[in-house]
Amino acid sequence: MLTASCCYTDRRRGQLAALSIAAVVIIVGVPLWWRTTETYRAWLPVNQINELANLQLQLSADVEVVFARGTVTPEQQKKVPTQVVISLCLFCSSPLEADLSLHTLSESPCGSLVVYVIPESSTLLPEDVDVYIGQRRTALLRIGAQMRVGRTLEQLLAHLEPRIKQVLQVMSFSHTDITAALSDRVRLSPGNKESIADSMRAFKSSPGYEITFSLLNPDPKSHRVHWDIEGAVQTYIQPLLTKLAPLANFSIDSQTLYYAMLGVNPRYDSSRSAYTLNSDSLAHVINPVEARLGSNAASSNPVLNFLLYVPDAHHSPLHIHDHKKQEVLSNAFHSPRWGGIMVYNVNGFYGPEAVFPVDININMAKVMGVFLAQLRLLLGVQSSAPPPGFLVAPCSSTGLADWELDRLMWSRTVENVATATTTITSLAQLLDQIGNIVINDNIAQQVSSAVTSLQLAVAELEAGNLGFALQYSKEAILASERAFFDPSLLHLLYFPDDQKFAIYIPLFLPMCVPILLSLLKIVSEARQKRRERQAKKD
Amino acid sequence: MAEQKFSLSVCVCVCVCVCVCMCVCVWAVRAMMCGCGRDDFQEELVIRPLHSGDIYASFQFRTVWETDFMRGNKVSHYRLFPKSLGQVISKFSVRELHISFTQGYWRTMQWGQPFQPSPPGAELWVWFQDSVTDVDGTWKELTNVLSGIFCASLNFIDSTNTVQPSASFKPLGIGNETDHRFLRYATLPREIVCTENLTPWKKLLPCGSKAGLAVLLKSEKLFHSSFHSQAVHIRPVCQDWQCKTTSWELRQTLNVVFDLHNSAQGKREWSLFKMFSRTLTEACPLASSSKIYIDITDNPQGEQFEVSPATPLLSQAVVLGDRRTFSVYDLTQQITFGTVRSLNLLIRWKSSDMLRPLLHAERYVAGYGLQTGEIHTLMYNNHPYRSFPVLLLDSVPWYLRLYIHTLTVTSKGKDNKPSYIHYQPSKDRLRPHLLEMLVQLPPNSVTEVTVQFERALLKWTEYTPDPNHGFYVGSSVISSLVPSIVAMDTNSTRERPLFSSFFPCKEESSYFVRVYTEPLLVNLPTPDFSMPYNVICLTCTVVAVGYGSLYNLLTRSFQIEEPSPGLAKRIANIIRKMRGVPPL
User: Fold this and answer.
1) Residue of A14, A57, A114, A391 with fewest CB within 10 Å of its CB?
2) To probe the interface with A, which of B83, B143, B533 has the most A CB atoms within 10 Å?
3) CB-CB neighbors (< 8 A) of A212 in chain B
4) Which spans are transmembrane here (chain A) (predicted)?
5) How many helices (H) and strands (E) does chain B have?
6) CB-CB neighbours of B160 under 10 Å
7) B92 CB contacts (<8 Å, ≥6 apart)?
């Protein structure tokens, strides 16, 4: 009897010991192990990022409509909230002058528009022109004849609305612009092929661009080519870039490359006694040249390449042919998101008894005209055809009207917002999926600042402050890219799970098996005891 | 009166304004001129038959550009100067940059002095402009960019192998900047040089490898040699002897030694075609001078070797303290190429003998075991009666812990006290040891520098992938002004062959020589790399065994059990059971 009770208390003590060891392991051991082997992950604003993922953009632009004297009747005039009715310069003979004088009248902030409504009888605009778009942020709109008398101001405004909308689409942004800016992010319905090609031509938005002009001279034995690139850049390119300064930083350099060959052999066309490059083979021209161009060692901004190719004496003159086998007048082509190439024939300089090498001075006005046009295309300054009845002012000396800059800023801001949003959401997704990645505090900070800038940019877009919106969107892009490409994200990424388990098993296996076995035994004993008790009761 | 005074002062004001305007204008025009200043390109090949029967070919390409990277104006329009290097100079405010990649070791005793010395592996030293504030950060970025340009692993340069020598590396260009805070020096003795380093180097040449001397640079021949070294040196130089304006000079050099037995199958006969598998047909059309020099000093009457085709042009140049005579082939003259329109120089040997170089050095590690050792550096002065001072620079990685109190310098069995010692101790994992000293070498003597060290144990992730190969210690650098037999030319702007104008010469009686010793290969104690896992397994087993027995003690209950009956008793019991008798 004594031995039995002793045995029973012993067994009871053993069970308690096993249970308490299991409890210690579960309550102390497991959390300790978890804490010490955990990767550090700073807090990220996940909710705000998820909100960004389905973002609704709302753009608004300020439009000011000014009625000239003679367009509103006195009773209509009373209802106009503020007295903005002005007399339009009576002595102006051309719309250009009117545009300039109106600009001096009021300086409009970027992103906004002023539409001047002028009477039908005005001789300011030519007969068949209803809308004139100036070089600044102004437009002149001729009022229709039927609106002269007996209508309320509301009706007048309702009549003007579609016209003003049209003006807005030309001068600020249209649906196609915005979809083009989003084309990289949003899957478009397979629509107009040409508009897709247009949207893919321009460089993607970036905080800076490097513009490189390269003179390719494959035959320095025959030609000694000189170009005044410095003067030409100052005269032709710099004004445009100064105007574009709010958009991005530009840096310009130039180089001369000798013995740089094109990738294809031009074909001899005996009927024209000239060498020709077909439009099909143009795609193969760039690759071998590209290897010589060299990347910019000092920055990581995208590079716009402009190449001037002087063909060697044996393959000269060289002409580029288009799809219809016609000579291209400018003798130049551009490659989307890469740059432009112009062929400059110099066989006219040889003369009857030329001594090689021939000294050649390049006509920079001709070359820069082509490069400037290509630069406008590659930067995304679109010159889509205006709707009928519209007259667009000729280009000013800077090569870019204020409203064209605004257009560019609208689409760039939208593109920046879209890019930054994609970067941030995909980063958040990646971090969510791979639990091994360490998130340091500085990354969390970059992510939060990107999110804040994005929200600010969206808010400014809604409020119509274009300048601030662009600024914030640029900051958002910078912060998001810095977070995404931070090298510290990669540190523990390649520590595979199987190796981790291989290290833990020698400790875990011998510790856990006895605990589990004794727990099982306790459970089975308890069950047996209950069965016995039941049998006794029965 | 007052009114008059006022008008006068206005007048002065206007005058001043006009003056300032004009100044600004002139300055702007100058700046614009600067951007498109004249540039000039020269190329040169020197061939020197060596006494061992090997042949030494040294290419030099020099681009001089009258521009100024140091002032504020931005240089961005390039013609002959490569754009990638120009951008590096302006972005990182570099005053002077010297980079070399070398495969093989220059055997000074057999081959004499090279025109441009370089240590095995990669070497980079840079003087920054004094406008740079964060020199270490700029240095780090610069090495990363250069490793991209030259396809080399220069990104492995970090604080543990970078030193700031106080005396050994003076600027080679103009500028008397001597504050060594702006100097950084690093070597990577492990770096292996191959085709991928040669291609970007050739791309920096204006003619590429399409014309001129560079057509000879075929990698399959160049790397089938005993020694190959390519370098880029950028420095500001004087435009004229008055030195009022500066130009920037880019020198690209390539030195190669072809082996007698390997490349020539033991025949003492060399030709351009045999060496480079190419002949020359034209000079680079952009070069203002393009010449080949053949060293015929030891061969005045043609008794040792003969050169064909013969050339009437001879030139003398003072190089490395010796007046040498050269046959010159001017590639810009059409007559050089003869009727076959190609030039294939042929050199045939007859006999040979050897001139000992005045200064050379060697180095080795002594000692046994994996705990301590001793570095021995031997410097030979072979001058019969002149003693001269040398600067010795040693940069030793931190994992060899130098015992600087064991430093001894002995020549001819006597203690030789260095007159200047600059020692910077290492910091673990941060910076290497730097030892610089000025030692006087007595005539016709061997000076031995020894220092003991202890090998450190590294952390297991700090070992290289092949740790049993050993760890490299970069070459020591010995810089010296060696007394010259003939008067040296001190005018740096006079027209001279390129190979004789690399190191600036300040006095006539001596010339500058830099000698590199062999790099060392030191074994460090290497652990068994499966050790961490073994340790984990072992400790886990010990813990598990201890834990298991403890667990058993705590949870099991023990009771005495009757010993089981013996075998005989059991058999007896079975029999008794069969008989129906109660068991025992």
Assistant:
1) A57
2) B83
3) 83
4) 16-34, 501-523
5) 10, 26
6) 18
7) B128, B132, B138, B141, B142, B145
The single-letter DSSP state of residue A25 is I
Amino acid at site A395: C
Sorted by sequence, the CB contacts under 8 Å of residue B19 that are 6+ apart come out as none
What mean pLDDT do residues B548-552 have? 86
Among residues B214, B328, B230, B217, the alpha carbon closest in space to that of B275 is found at B217
For B471-500, write each residue's pLDDT tens digit: 999 999 999 988 887 777 776 666 778 888
**How much of chain B, in percent, has pLDDT values that exceed 70?**
89
Model confidence pLDDT, tens digit, residues B322-374? 788 888 988 888 888 877 778 888 887 765 555 678 898 999 999 988 899 99
Q: Using the predicted structure, report yes or no on whether residue B174 has a pLDDT greater than 70.
A: yes
Residues of chain A falling short of pLDDT 50: 1-3, 82-91
3-state secondary structure of B227: strand
pLDDT given at position A92: 53
Tell me if B95 sits within 8 A of B129, measured CB to CB.
yes
Q: When comparing pLDDT for A292 and B23, which is higher? A: A292
Q: In this predicted structure, what is the pLDDT of residue A293? A: 84
Nearest Cα residue to A488 out of A43, A52, A42, A50: A42
Dihedral of CA atoms A22, A25, A28, A33 in degrees, nearest 10, equals: -160
Give the pLDDT of residue B106. Answer: 92
Residue whose structure tokens are 């030892």: B435
Task: Give the closest of A228, A254, A294 to B84, CB-based.
Answer: A294
Q: Alpha carbon of B518 to those of B114, B282, B331: distances in Å? A: 15, 39, 37
**Best CA proximity match to B328, nearest among B340, B341, B345, B342:** B345
Contacts of B390 (CB under 8 A, 6+ apart): B359, B379, B438, B439, B441, B478, B479, B480
Tell if the CB–CB gap between B87 and A3 is shorter than 8 Å: no
pLDDT of B4 over the 50 cut: no
Measured distance between the N- and C-terminal CA atoms of chain B, rounded to whole angstroms:
155
Report the interhelical angle of A441-463 vs A402-433 (nearest 10°): 140
- Tens of pLDDT, residues B103-136: 999 988 888 889 899 999 999 999 998 888 999 9
| pLDDT, tens digit, 9 for 90 and up, residues B295-324 | 888 776 666 777 888 877 888 888 877 788
Q: Is the pLDDT of residue B14 over 70?
A: no
Which whole-number Å values give the CA distances from B2 to B6, B8, B15, in the listed order? 6, 10, 20
What radius of gyration do chain A's Cα atoms show?
36
The residue of B39, B77, B94 whose CB has the most chain A CBs within 10 angstroms, and thus the best one to mutate to test that interface, is B77
| Measured distance CA(B316)–CA(A213) in Å, rounded | 44
CA A40 to chain centre: 33
Chain B positions touching A357 (Cβ under 8 A) are 285
- Reported as half-sphere exposure (CB side, CA atoms, 13 A), residue A503 has a value of 12
Chain B residue numbers touching A21 (CB-CB < 8 A) = 551, 554-555
Closest Cα in chain A, distance from residue B53 (Å): 37
B381-420 b/e (C-beta count within 10 Å ≥ 16 → b): bbbeeeebebbbbbbbbbbbbbeeeebebebeeeebebee
- Rounded to 5°, angle at Cα A41 from A35 and A43: 120
Q: What is the layout of strands, in order, in the sheet containing B269-271?
A: B269-271, B346-349, B305-308
Closest CA to B408 of B395, B400, B399, B418: B418
